[in-house]
UniProtKB/TrEMBL annotation, chains A, B:
Keyword flag Aminoacyl-tRNA synthetase: yes
Protein name listed in UniProt: proline--tRNA ligase
Disordered: annotated segments: 53-81
GO biological process: one example: prolyl-tRNA aminoacylation
Length: 557, 557
């Protein structure tokens, strides 16, 4: 059963339980680069069941070098594995080479490096403002939850107990009651709501927190599924069922708009099937994103919790008629998984491609010179362009180092996914112009020559080009998505679509068992019943029962 | 030994191991309010050694009502315990009544409520910008640290091992290696630095993270010392000792400036004594704040770590001469403890008094009407004043509810520490004026009548008054601090000063044993060797040895 953002199983074919040996961080000249790179890919996608199987040769390799540092160097110097060649290896190469993340010393944990964290900060900055605009306040709940709390809501404990991290020792002593490190906070939130909410005047109560959460996942993949991850979790309490439903819908709309407008990811919004509903919710809404390999990524969820938690925690209020009632609740979350979604939606063979609104560096300036004299004039022009754009609020970086050639820098910042590049050479300075290149339009057709250095013209040109890149990324992803959703009228057609790597969409009125059968036979699950319903036959493609709506099936992360 | 921001012992005289029973949250009409309030105060300041001693009467009281909810209601309706009467109880009353925090279900944990969290957000917003301006990047390290890491640096393990929370179960299984929930991140940071840093070109490496940390404290007090708290921790690596020292000094200056300019807390900046230095540091710089009860609060620290961690973790780089060298490091932190410092510096008998720069609500607007007709005109004027000020970036709130009298609202928002109040009645509307009251100037002298409602005039008036309140709070605290530091020339004089509740300042060249003796006999510790050294005799007041500098002694939180 799915219980949250980061729950679905990923394919996992290789494994190394690599744990870096401190101080041993140099290259192994004896291991071919190809093998080293394979080795890297393996180290992230790991299956605990396989942890026991480890040859002595693998052990020996482990001692030689931490694979991610190697991949970082390889990716930066020779380029990443092309996406078209091996999507999974490309993903891991990009994360290493672009310095988005590294893995922590504990299996399945991740260090988010500055370039990756800056993407998360951009996500936070947009969403935090939206949450506040819609009347939510930030606060903080402790991360340690008494074990007994988790057990109060029946389906919640069923969903979460297999993946809990448990603190049993505090201050050197065995604890009387074990403490769960929060996997999500519904239980502790309800414990506190019960104390704060007395009358209908205390409602609605709308809060949010930006925190770390822990789920003992067996198959991990950086950003997509890690033992510990960062997210925001919103929690609200309402006097009526309708209000809670409105809230859950309002928040999934905030997420949808974020995905489209900021992340340039054309998510499909819809309702989860019963099997895929959050453990403890009445109804789960989701935004589902199609990755570059056409697998689905559940990128954000909003739950109508009904009265499930308020009944379990006795969270009651006195309504305006003087009657005691259980409150109606919602919860909703987006996590660092979204960073993985951005990588896997927009990247190409060269590496990362970041939507301008989330890019830590929107414009990279690369000065080009040969003589010392040229260097002086070129650098001086580059510095003024940099400060002009920064003043205009454009996230700009000047790469003025003389240890690398301009060509190396072009490749490096392309791999890092920077939306626009400005080149300034001696002739440009003489003409008072620059050359601007778009990351999203490959080769010469993405190059624009003779762009005026005049401050007013340049900044307006850059801003409009950033918007064009933003729009273009969304349109490309939208076309890709729509050309990879297939309408199906039978189980056979569904199987064919899934085998071809596509999403299948068809009228559905099957049972949980029918859904499970599809999962077992094809690996695909119901991603959602989309809000936008196409015309359909009205007959379930599986059971021939009357069907009110279509469902979308896909393999997923 | 002191090992960080939240380490010093607080006085602890009362205790109740209260754990709220779910659903039992109503008032007990049989328990006098005075007792209920005592009961509340007791519940926060707890000593684990006393946990065993608990009378059945206390147990019975526990069942009746969660004390903080009671104090919240009492404080909001009858006012908080006056500060002049009982500082500790006032502190807890204010936290409850102003809804700054609540305690979590696990002993010593704290829920930070929206009004308290908004103060923390204001602190974050200022500091985060300063860290970025000075070249630091945010990132995220996992919170689970292999137990073996903690043991690598000798004094670090000695300082931290008594207060660790330890995860021993993950995903339902006993873990092979126990995991520490981070009490601070030097060890895991060094583990990663060792992998990222190869040459002098990789230095300096300057990062920061905003995270939760856990220390199994026995005596807790909301904000001041809690089992889990929020902080930022900066970590840097440098090629030279001088650069690391400069960095440590630069950051303590960032903290000093923050304390003065934003929190209006006139901290004393200085160097810690050897005994009070962070576990693992060569040198610790500190900002020490004088609370309203004249106890010292260590409000932020910056550590020069030397090569202690780089040697323990083998973090080396190739210098420009091609030699392997250990890096030089710093770390520095400010935590949610600062919120406690703000409360205890500026509050008065009425409750909280917030410096405008950190106040979640800077201006509260209270409309006053009798008839429905008056209500309409008054509210319409109040709404335009509100939207004017909000547009100008002033954090403004309009309390338009008709369930409370204006008098009740005056008291409530005074207790919440809002710097400025705007009153608007029918006569004000007729005159196109408002009445403005300052929180920091009690009674009629703080009231300013006939302030024009003209947008340009009003917004500039409000802004300048907010700055006046900000400056006045700092000046009051500064005068208070300076009148409570006494220069001492002998141990006897020190004892007298400490007994009188003051800070003692005198030339010091004593040994660790001498320092310990003072602590044992007076309860005071060396807070710091202040950067601003007054003229002094040059003879240690304790040992008569030649003394180069004065130290400040005080009792502390």
């Amino acid at each position: 059963m799915a219980v949250g953002t980061l729950r679905f199983q990923s394919a996992c074919t290789r494994f190394t339980s690599y744990a870096p040996a401190i101080g041993q961080r140099r290259f192994s000249p004896t291991l071919p680069l190809y093998r080293q790179s394979l080795h890297l890919a393996a180290s992230f996608s790991c299956n605990a069941a396989q942890q026991q199987v480890q040859t002595s040769k693998e052990k020996q390799q482990k001692q030689e070098t931490p694979p991610l540092q190697k991949a970082q160097k390889k990716g930066q110097q020779e380029g990443v594995t092309p996406r078209s060649q091996d999507f999974n290896m490309w993903y891991l190469d990009v994360i290493a080479a672009a310095e988005l993340a590294d893995y922590g010393p504990v299996r399945g944990t991740m260090v988010i490096r500055p370039y990756g964290y800056a993407i998360w900060e951009a996500i936070q900055s947009y969403l935090d403002a939206k949450f506040k605009e819609t009347g939510h306040s930030n606060m903080y709940f402790p991360q340690f939850i008494p074990y007994s709390f988790i057990e109060k809501e029946a389906s919640h404990v069923e969903g979460f107990s297999p993946e809990l991290a448990v603190v049993t020792i505090g201050g050197g002593k065995e604890l009387e009651e074990k403490l769960v490190v929060r996997p999500t906070s519904e239980t502790i939130v309800n414990h506190m709501f019960t104390q704060w909410i007395h009358s209908y005047r205390d409602l609605p109560l709308k809060i949010n927190q930006w925190v770390n959460v822990t789920r003992w996942e067996m198959r991990t993949k950086p950003f997509v599924r890690t033992l510990e991850f960062l997210w925001q979790e919103g929690h609200t309490g309402h006097a009526t069922e309708e209000e809670a439903e409105e809230e859950a819908l309002q928040l999934i709309e905030v997420y949808r708009k974020f995905a489209f407008d900021e992340a340039a990811i054309p998510v499909v919004v819809g309702r989860k099937s019963r099997l895929e509903t959050f453990a403890g919710a009445v109804r789960t809404y989701t935004i589902e994103a199609m990755m570059g390999d056409r697998k689905a990524l559940q990128a954000g969820t909003s739950h109508n919790l009904g009265q499930n938690f308020s009944r379990a925690f006795d969270t009651q209020f006195l309504d305006s008629q003087g009657e005691q009632q259980f409150i109606w609740q919602t919860s909703w979350a987006i996590s660092t998984r979204m960073v993985g979604g951005v990588i896997m939606t927009h990247g190409d063979d060269m590496g990362l491609m970041l939507p301008p609104k989330l890019a830590p560096v929107q414009v990279i300036i690369i000065p080009i010179w040969k003589t010392d004299e040229e260097k002086e004039t070129v650098l001086s022009a580059a510095v003024s362009v940099e400060s002009l754009l920064k003043k205009e609020g454009v996230r700009t970086k000047l790469d003025a180092s003389d240890q690398r050639t301009p060509g190396w820098k072009f490749n490096f910042w392309e791999m890092k996914g920077v939306p626009l590049r400005i080149e300034i050479g001696p002739r440009d300075v003489a003409n008072n112009t620059v050359v601007v290149s778009r990351r999203d339009v490959p080769g010469k057709s993405g190059k624009m020559f003779g762009i005026s250095m005049d401050p007013a013209e340049l900044q307006s040109f850059i801003k409009s080009k950033l918007q064009e890149v933003q729009d273009n990324l969304l349109n490309i992803a939208l076309a890709f998505r729509d050309s990879n959703i297939e309408d199906v009228g039978s189980f056979e057609e569904l199987k064919a679509a899934i085998t071809a790597g596509k999403w299948a969409r068809g009228p559905w009125a099957g049972s949980d068992a029918d859904e499970t059968k599809i999962k077992e036979e094809t690996g695909a699950t119901i991603r959602c019943f989309p809000f936008e319903q196409p015309p359909h036959s009205g007959r379930c493609f599986m059971t021939e029962n009357a069907a009110k709506e279509v469902a979308i099936f896909a393999k997923s992360y």
